[in-house]
Amino acid sequence: MKPRQDSLLGQASEEELTACIRLLALNVVQHRSAGSFTSFRDSAEMLRPGSADPNKLDLIVGSRDVVEEALEVVRTIAAEKKPTEDEPEASAEERRKHLRISVTAPIKLIWPGEDTPTDARLQDISWGGAAIKVDKVRMASGDTLIVVIPGTNGQPIHIEAKYLRSWKMDDRGGEGLAVRFSSIATSDEDELEAVLQMLAQSGDSDGLRAHARLHQRLDLQFEGDELKASLEDISAGGLGVTVPEPLQIGQSLQAIISTFDEKHSLKLRARVVRQEKISMGKAELYQAGLKFEHPSEELAELTQALISKMARSGR
User: Fold this and answer.
1) 3-state helix/strand/coil string of the chain
2) Contact, 298 vs 186, CB < 8 A?
3) Residue 295, Cα to own-chain centre: how many angstroms?
4) What is the pLDDT of residue 310?
5) pLDDT below 70 — which residues of the chain?
6) Does the model's pTM come out above 0.85?
7) Would you state the pLDDT for residue 89?
8) In this structure, are residues 133 and 121 in contact, taking their beta carbons and an 8 Å threshold?
9) Contact of 161 with 182, CB cutoff 8 Å
10) Could you give all domains of the chain from N- to C-terminal order, each with its CATH number?
11) What is the sign, positive or negative, of the torsion defined by CA atoms of 157, 265, 239, 196?
12) Burial (CB count <10 Å: 0-12, 13-18, 19+), residue 99
């Protein structure tokens, strides 16, 4: 819907609208961090040059994350269009890009602002997130917690996850919590995949609910110099790619990034945050934006190590 030209937003310049978005996002971050009301005027003081508040940098960075979070939600909703009369509605299994495995298992949660893990139980889990039963949800929308899952090797897997929604479990007591996995160490990624594979196979005697459906794999291959250039974007947390088939905004996938000879490669979790259809001649392709679901420090270390390795090998 286009804004009316005689409305306040319709009269605002692009610069004014951008400033409003920054102010709104900063105000949201301050609400979340303080747990109480913060006025727009107080938030605006943080944006003034020379503000001496020691928390300014953290809040500004957090506000950028809020804008990204809001934009992703808007794009995801826009992508989930209702089917037309000529387009039959897809089944739940077709719409879901991750195999969701029903399982009741004990896990641990570390709530925001706390250090001591609390007991919880998995209700189901997928490559992209989980549903969890807890006594009481102790976080708000937009907050991040740590999900601790037992690994197959005896070592726990720590996954950063974002609150999606919660609900009362009237018949059994307690509350349900749905989370989306947002960041995991690359050393834990293979272990999570092994856990999901084991759970999927144990839940299906013929073993057909399997590896290929745990997640979508995206193979991205580059010439040596192209890969070096792409690694700079990857280290910053994102990458733009062109693919022949559409992806789903919001889905998490496994990206295999390598040279054509596969001599140098990285395996990373990535989430689709934007997508646009483009035409190249008679062909229709899709430009997608990926955000990597690993700690930023680890991405920087991994990409720098690969660049050094490629330099030593002459590629």
Assistant:
1) CCCCCCCHHHHCCHHHHHHHHHHHHHHHHHHHHHCCCCCHHHHHHHHCCCCCCCCHHHHHHHHHHHHHHHHHHHHHHHHCCCCCCCCCCCCHHHHCCCCCEEEEEEEEEECCCCCCCEEEEEEEECCCEEEEEECCCCCCCCCEEEEEECCCCCCCEEEEEEEEEEEECCCCCCEEEEEEEEEECHHHHHHHHHHHHHHHHHCCCCCCCCHHHHCEEEEEEECHHHHHHHHHHHHCCEEEEEECCCCCCCCEEEEEEEECCCCCEEEEEEEEEEEEEEEECCEEEEEEEEEECCCHHHHHHHHHHHHHHHHHCCC
2) yes
3) 12
4) 85
5) 1-9, 35, 72-98, 171-172, 203-213, 314-315
6) no
7) 41
8) yes
9) yes
10) 10-78 (no CATH), 98-202 (2.40.10.220), 216-312 (2.40.10.220)
11) negative
12) buried
Tokens of 148: 């601790």
In the block, tokens 């092994």 appear at 194
Give every CB contact of residue 130 below 8 A, 6+ residues apart in sequence. Answer: 122, 123, 124, 147, 161, 178, 179, 181
